[in-house]
Design goal:
Keywords: Signal
CATH class: Few Secondary Structures
Number of helices: 3
Protein name: Putative secreted protein
Radius of gyration: 17 Å
Distance between the termini: 52 Å
Structural class: alpha+beta
CATH architecture: Irregular
Number of domains: 1
CATH topology: Factor Xa Inhibitor
Order of helices and strands: HEEHH
Length: about 100
């Protein structure tokens, strides 16, 4: 019985650690945005754990897109986000200073 409980806990822990999408834990910083002289190539979406919402941002050549979601819907589903409109960057320092 103890072995069965141990196996169950091990499998559960494994699923939690390796099953979660790492992009939901990524912290979006204003530095991640494009510089003013960089050409915007498209949109990326990131999750804010403090608001539990997904936000749109722009990406450039220098942006590591693997840390972000390519669609708003993918972000919402992967991170179990609250329903929201696609607004602003949502996690930048400027936004928090206004609260």
């Amino acid at each position: 019985m103890e072995k069965m409980i141990f196996c169950f806990l091990t499998v559960t822990l494994f699923a939690l650690v390796f099953g979660a999408d790492q992009r939901c834990d990524n912290i979006y910083r204003p530095d991640d945005e494009c510089d003013t002289d960089e050409t915007r190539l498209g949109e990326i979406f990131h999750f804010s754990s403090s608001t539990r919402r997904c936000y749109a941002g722009e990406y450039c050549e220098s942006t590591d897109r693997s840390k972000y979601f390519s669609t708003h819907e993918e972000c919402k589903k992967s991170c179990n986000a609250q329903d929201s409109e696609e607004v602003g960057s949502g996690g930048g320092i400027e936004d928090r200073d206004m609260e």
